[in-house]
Amino acid sequence: MVTVPSRLDSTPPASGPAPARRPTVVEGVPPSVPAPAAGQPLVEIEHLDFFYGASQALREITLGIERQKVTAFIGPSGCGKSTLLRCLNRMNDLIEGTRIVRGSIRIHGVDINQPDVDVIELRKRVGMVFQKSNPFPKSIHENITYGLRLQGIRDKAKLDEIVERSLRGAALWDEVKDRLGESAMGLSGGQQQRLCIARAIAVEPEIILMDEPCSALDPVATAKVEELIQDLRSRFTIVIVTHNMQQAARCSDRTAFFYLGKLIEYADTRDIFTNPANPQTEAYVSGRFG
Amino acid sequence: MSQLSSSASAPTPQFPIHKRRLRFLGLTVEDCIKSFFGGNALISVVVLGLITFFLVKEGAGFLGQNRQNLAIYRLAGLEFVDHLRRQSEDHTALTRYLSDLRLRTLNQWTGPGGLTLEAANARLAEFDDYAARFGDAADPLRGMVSDLSEVATAIKTKFLVNEDKKEERRQLLAEGKVAEAGAVVITAVDFPAELRPLRDSLPAYREANREFSTRLGALLAAAPRLPEPELQRRMDRFAELGRTYVATFPGIERDLAVWDHARPVSAAEAFTAFIFGRQWLTASFWQDWYGVVPLLTGSFLVALVALSLAVPLGVGAAVYVNQIASQREQRFIKPGIEFISAFPSVVLGFFGIAVLGQALRAMSQLPWLSWVPGFPYSERLNILTAGCLLALIAVPTIFTLAEDALNNVPRALKEASLALGASRLQTTIRIIVPASLSGIISAVLLGLGRVVGETMVVLLCAGNRIAIPDFTQGLGFIVEPVHTMTGIIAQEMGEVVRGSIHYRALFMVGLVLFILSLTINYAAQHIVRRYRISIG
Ligand SMILES: Nc1ncnc2c1ncn2[C@@H]1O[C@H](COP(=O)(O)OP(=O)(O)O)[C@@H](O)[C@H]1O
Ligand SMILES: [Mg+2]
């Protein structure tokens, strides 16, 4: 097994039927629930083996994601970053033939792959921003309120208020406040991506997953999104997949380096970039392969 | 190969980048390929143009002929007589209302625990006497109509014989047989003189009309009373209809007084007689009518029934296959539905006659289904039968195109919706279907085009009765037989004389059909284009 340094080793082994196990359905856990134990990560991934049909995409992943921090997943293409990210809100359920053969993912101590887990509730709490911006072909306003309406919120004043708050949160309000009724398809690529972030934060998730959110954006738009991530870290736990090493170095607190479906190294971002423990990590972050 | 190209344009043989051209009859290979494909495209366009031109040319001839047709109708006084005939027919309708009322009364009285048939009939003696007196009141009018009909028919025949003779003489002259041509006697019809009997009948008609209206007035005032309130309401309604009828008399007299046999028929009149004409009546001894409305309504109603079945089926199946079904189900359902279109439509029609028509009729006669409008019915072939089969024809089109449209919705939209905590159903209804709505609408339109143009099934299964269905019975019209535009062309085109007005009228119907299909297809494409843009 590869060396997995630092804090993860110090977390108590959480396998076995933990006595403090919460009800398995995530429902009813308010976002502001206090940490179960000091230092225990919000998301605990243990010994995860994941398959697309017969081909294994993730091997033995053990990783803890800490609350209100930005965690970056880096690694060469095809190493399984997106796959792991999509495991966290069970988006892989949509792909036929996917299965988790071994291991578990727990959020707030709840195993999210248990059959009695309501995926819909899970996804309300674990939001996602995709690589390619994907606003709905509806108005800007409707894009933001979509998730809220699904939850049965109909009160117009309340919706308007959340729209404004979310757009401000996504640093988009000033640019679109005069055209909320217009189609979201008319926005620029960067604006669309920030709209998608606004749409995700409108439903107040605890965790936001971002899969290469800037890879289709120009440098100026990228800088805006990165700035936004810095603003959001105080309210959300963010996991970001990125191809761009500088981006990981700039925005994240913790960085996990994957290679060929394995977690090679997971440490504070500073350590990964300045003093990596593993030679493969070093080779990758210094740009010698990848 | 640089030697082949002219040396002037190839200054540096060390850098051979000039095109190497193989020439064939002075054309390069590319030219040949280009002209092959271009030629094919050109042929299609030319053929389409020719067909359109042919349709329009043959159809346009109809206007002139129908104008002539209507002019004779007027000149020979048929129009005059038809005023009276309509009056007489309206009276007949009232008589029918009475006999219908008698039937209802009889049914009610002889119902369970009621009178015997003899007793009920005896109780209706007074009613019968009244109905008979009401019916007889129109006898003078009917006599007049039949006398004048003969006069008008005679004038028309005389005119037509003369026309034939003129034609004969023209042919003889064309063949150079001047002597024979001179021997053909043509006596021009003197319409004012011939029409004198009609005009002279006016005072007598006025007199008869006065008599008629006083008799009807007296009869309506003394209408028999029926004990049941429901029946009495109908009786009151009868009296009301009767009074309305009598009130139309002065109008008819006025129309007859100002009627002028020589008033010219305009081209617009000939056209509206076709487009808004409510009768399609050919080879009639009295007067032929070429009105497209009954055919248009027939086509429209059959298509409506077909679509109201095919749209939920096709779109529903498309949504299921695209959004819900597993891949194994998809592999099974998709070819299954597409296979339906492999049935030749004549086979479907045959199936409609032999199986579906029977089955539906048998079903309509089940007592517990009698609440369905129009049930029970006895005509096996009708709008419903044809509509059900046409739905079968439209389903593959709608299904395939709607499935395409759903498939074109980017997967990312579905993922975005699910990631926000939407269920599959919510995602389908709120995101996928709206995003593909224009595609689905155009699928439905193309299905409509398919249904409107379909011929064999409607010819075999729609019942082929040329009449506008009776909408007064609510939804019951869907079990009435109709004729359709496609059906009538297929049925009558083989029998008509080339170049006759009937032949041309069929072309006009074809033209209407063509324009309709064109509009539907254009609309469908237009909508698809808009939708492509909006999805981006
Ligand atoms: N839908 C899929 N079906 C089968 N294999 C997949 C699918 N998606 C990804 N994979 C495979 O899983 C591995 C990890 O992919 P991914 O997580 O997308 O990598 P990354 O995001 O790190 O570039 C790759 O080898 C890829 O080929
Ligand atoms: Mg990826």
Walkthrough of the structure:
The complex is a heterodimer of chains A (290) and B (536). Chain A has 290 residues and is of the alpha/beta class. Chain A contains ten helices and ten strands. Chain A has helices at residues 81-88, 119-125, 140-150, 156-169, 173-176, 189-202, 219-232, 245-251, 269-274, 279-285; strands at 43-52, 55-65, 70-74, 98-107, 110-111, 126-129, 207-211, 237-241, 254-259, 262-268. In chain A, the strands form two sheets. In chain A, strands 6-7-8-3-9-10 form a six-stranded mixed sheet, with helices on both faces. In chain A, strands 2-1-4-5 form a four-stranded antiparallel sheet, covered by helices on one side. Chain B folds into two domains: 76-269, no CATH class; 294-495, MetI-like (MetI-like fold, Orthogonal Bundle), CATH 1.10.3720. Chain B is built from 21 helices and four strands. In chain B, the strands form two sheets. A two-stranded antiparallel ribbon of chain B has the order 1-2. A two-stranded antiparallel sheet of chain B has the order 3-4. In chain B, helix 1 packs across helix 11 (267-275). The longest helix of chain B has 47 residues, at 29-75. Magnesium ion (MG) is lined by residues 81-82 of chain A.
What is the secondary structure topology, with strand pairs?
The complex is a heterodimer of chains A (290) and B (536).
Chain A: E1 43-52, E2 55-65, E3 70-74, H1 81-88, E4 98-107, E5 110-111, H2 119-125, E6 126-129, H3 140-150, H4 156-169, H5 173-176, H6 189-202, E7 207-211, H7 219-232, E8 237-241, H8 245-251, E9 254-259, E10 262-268, H9 269-274, H10 279-285
Parallel strand pairs in A: 3-8, 3-9, 6-7, 7-8
Antiparallel strand pairs in A: 1-2, 1-4, 4-5, 9-10
Chain B: E1 23-24, E2 27-28, H1 29-75, H2 78-109, H3 117-123, H4 125-136, H5 139-174, H6 178-183, H7 191-194, H8 196-221, H9 229-247, H10 249-258, H11 267-275, E3 280-281, E4 289-290, H12 293-324, H13 327-340, H14 345-364, H15 383-408, H16 411-419, H17 424-435, H18 437-453, H19 456-461, H20 485-492, H21 501-535
Antiparallel strand pairs in B: 1-2, 3-4
Helix pairs in contact in B: 1-11, 1-21, 2-4, 2-5, 2-9, 2-10, 5-8, 8-9, 8-10, 12-15, 12-18, 13-15, 14-15, 15-18, 16-17, 18-21, 20-21
